[in-house]
UniProtKB/TrEMBL annotation:
Residues 28-57 are annotated as: Disordered. Its main location: other. GO terms for biological process: iron coordination entity transport. Residues 70-342 form the Fe/B12 periplasmic-binding domain. GO terms for cellular component: outer membrane-bounded periplasmic space. This is ABC transporter substrate-binding protein. It comes from the Bacteria. Residues 1-29 form the signal peptide. PROSITE patterns: FE_B12_PBP, PROKAR_LIPOPROTEIN. PANTHER family: FERRIC ENTEROBACTIN-BINDING PERIPLASMIC PROTEIN FEPB (PTHR30532:SF24), IRON III DICITRATE-BINDING PERIPLASMIC PROTEIN (PTHR30532). InterPro entries: ABC_transptr_periplasmic_BD (IPR002491), Bact_iron-sidero_bind (IPR051313). Keywords: Signal, Transport.
Length: 342
């Protein structure tokens, strides 16, 4: 009997990093932290040099008291949260490859907040903070560096801390696995705006709530969120931000598909099994560099019941990226785009 094949989360994560798909979508445990939790691992070059042992709380306070005039955004989507806080950073770390974002290195959801500003674009941080990248950040003369949605190893931490105080995610979460709410809290704390950070979380959550309230007819509907890649379709689970985004709108993930994912955040469906997607009420196909156009011309897909019955929605690449990188700017923007699809 033919079966769906569950993919390796490590393997696909590497593919997504190099393919330019937004990284925060690999997060697990969205919204799970409760009560007290460790905030930004924020340190300064001065404290390191003196050999002092510091804890999260006083170091966050130290960084928060510093000037916010020249903040370098070095993590994917960190620029969006900073802009939502009213801070225009001196650098931005665009996701993916050159051309995956606009000329200013941000998504369309951030253009209004960015205005006429044009931060330095630091490419390639998904592969690590190389010496060249560190030099590019240093050249902008930042007063602090925000690298929350990023993978900062020990050498990179040492190099970046030598430039300016550094804020990263806490050790409670693995790289690329920080819930979006915690990313906002970490970044807001690092710039001394924790109260505003909590307000942004509430406003973002309200976008989901408003959509669900406006469309009660969708509360029992299932949606398969799929991404075409390398001749197959990847069906996301709620362990990926894209699946989680759809769930927060009030939809349900089709268990008959996603339960086969195991510890992965997706299930791989081969062409001969494409019709299994029709078990969902809707199929949302996420575009990347024209992949949806290719899929539409694939007889194995165009012949499935969901296509013939008009239950497939094609989501443009910008919206797919916004869904994957949830933050105060992407969430309301992507919610509006999804509503347009209805």
């Amino acid at each position: 009997m033919k079966r769906l094949v569950s993919g390796s989360s490590r393997g696909i994560l590497a593919a997504l990093l190099t393919a330019g798909l937004v990284l925060s979508g690999c997060a697990k445990g969205d919204g799970e932290p409760g009560g007290e939790s460790t905030r930004s691992s924020t340190t300064s070059a001065a404290s390191k040099a003196s050999g002092e042992q510091s804890t999260d709380a006083p170091v966050v306070a130290e960084v928060a008291e510093a000037s916010n005039d020249r903040v370098a955004a070095a993590g994917f989507g960190d620029v969006d949260t900073l802009l939502a806080l009213g801070i225009v950073p001196v650098t931005v770390a665009p996701w993916g490859q050159p051309g995956d974002t606009g000329e200013k290195g941000v998504g369309p959801w951030a253009l209004e907040a960015l205005g006429d500003n044009d931060p330095a674009k630091i490419m390639g941080t998904a592969s690590g903070f190389t010496g060249q990248i560190v030099e590019q950040i240093a050249a902008t003369d930042p007063t602090k560096i925000i690298a929350v949605n990023a993978a900062v190893d020990e050498q990179a931490r040492k190099d970046l801390e030598a430039i300016a105080p550094l804020a990263t995610h806490s050790d409670e979460y693995q790289d690329w696995s920080v819930p979006w709410q915690e990313q906002i809290r970490d970044i807001a704390a690092a710039v001394g705006m924790s109260d505003r950070g909590e307000e942004l979380i509430e406003e973002s959550e309200q976008s989901f709530t408003d959509f669900a309230s406006a469309h009660p007819e969708l509360s029992d509907k299932t949606v398969a969120v799929v991404f075409p890649l390398k001749g197959e379709l990847r069906v996301y689970t709620e362990d990926h931000n894209r699946g989680r985004f759809i769930s927060r709108l009030g939809f349900r993930m089709p268990e008959e598909l996603t339960e086969q994912a195991g510890d992965s955040f997706y299930v791989a469906v081969s062409p001969e099994n494409y019709n299994t997607l029709s078990a969902a009420d809707y199929v949302y196909v996420l575009d990347y560099q024209g992949s949806t156009d290719q899929l539409k011309n694939d007889p194995a897909f165009s012949s499935i019941d969901a296509v013939r019955e008009g239950r497939v929605r094609y989501i443009d690449e910008d919206t797919a990226n916004a869904m994957s990188m949830m933050n105060p700017l992407t969430i309301p923007w992507a919610v509006d785009r999804i509503e347009e699809q209805l």
